[in-house]
Amino acid sequence: MYTIKNFLQNDDVTVLSQMGAFSVIEWKRDLSLTPETVQNAWFCSEMNVRRRQVVVDLKQAPVTIQAGAMQWMAGDVYNDTGVKGAGDFLGKALRGAVTNETAIKPEYKGTGTLVLEPTYKYIILLDVAQWGNNIVLDDGLFLACYSSLKHTAVMRSNISSAAAGGEGLFNLAIQGFGALCLESPCPQEELIEIELNDDVLKIDGNMALAWSGSLQFTVERSSKSLIGSAASGEGLVNVYRGTGKVLMAPTSR
């Protein structure tokens, strides 16, 4: 039996959101300061630049996290690599190489508490079931998820879209039932969610954070011809077609 004091009960800590095993907390102020750092800390606090962390209650579900994201854990907690043989290792290594994610993501199980490293990014909790049980992520957004969720690398609809758009050919897809944690460059209050019903969305810039796996994603010229693209002042755009949702930041990242 363990007891954690002066953590979630600290008057400097606010619980921002909860979903299943995940809780997102925010530290209102940084109190461990020096005269040299106090001015910067004050401006950060005023502009909502604050430390945020994910706290996991493993009694509710085992979780998979980004490598290196664990800060501390208490109680009956054990972890493994989640690798199930040589073939599985090679598959994970290949997926990590093509999606710019860590090849091996550790899995944590048990009945204790797991706390992830603090971040100044914004932590978004999503229910994958609300995305048709299949959500595709832009590079670098994954933080943690239920271990019951499957990770796959999905390829762009055409090879030229990766070369033309200056991005990778593959993205990380999360499939199944369970909760997902993302590290977002902007708060959830600013995120734009667009729902398509057999329609098309075109975005000029790297603004989409995540989209339904049911959507077809390509990079195309903004006009049907090179002359038309030049005349309009626009070049290449990210295009999402079909039925599903897109989660979008208000500005390019």
Quick take:
By secondary structure, the protein is mostly beta strands.
Which tags fit this structure?
6-stranded antiparallel sheet; 253 residues; 4 helices; mainly beta; 7-stranded antiparallel sheet
Secondary-structure class? mainly beta
Give the N-to-C terminal Cα separation: 45 Å
Mean pLDDT, as a whole number? 86
* Helix proportion: 10-25%
Largest sheet: 7 strands, antiparallel
Number of strands: 18
Order of helices and strands: EEHEEEEHEEEEEEHEEEEEHE
Put simply, the count of helices is 4
Low-confidence stretches: 85-90, 95-99, 226-233
Shape: globular
Rg from Cα: 20 Å
β content, as a range?
Answer: 35-45%
How would you describe this protein?
- This protein is mainly beta and 253 residues long.
- The protein is built from 4 helices and 18 strands.
- The strands form 3 sheets. Strands 10, 12, 13, 15, 16, 17 and 18 form a 7-stranded antiparallel sheet that branches. Strands 6-7-4-11-14-9 form a 6-stranded antiparallel sheet, with no helix packed on it.
Could you outline the blueprint of secondary structure elements for this entry?
Blueprint: E1 13-19, E2 22-27, H1 38-46, E3 52-57, E4 63-65, E5 70-74, E6 77-80, H2 86-99, E7 107-110, E8 113-116, E9 122-127, E10 134-137, E11 142-146, E12 150-155, H3 159-165, E13 170-175, E14 179-184, E15 192-203, E16 208-212, E17 216-221, H4 226-232, E18 236-248
Antiparallel strand pairs: 1-2, 2-3, 3-8, 4-7, 4-11, 5-8, 6-7, 9-14, 10-13, 10-16, 11-14, 12-13, 15-18, 16-18, 17-18
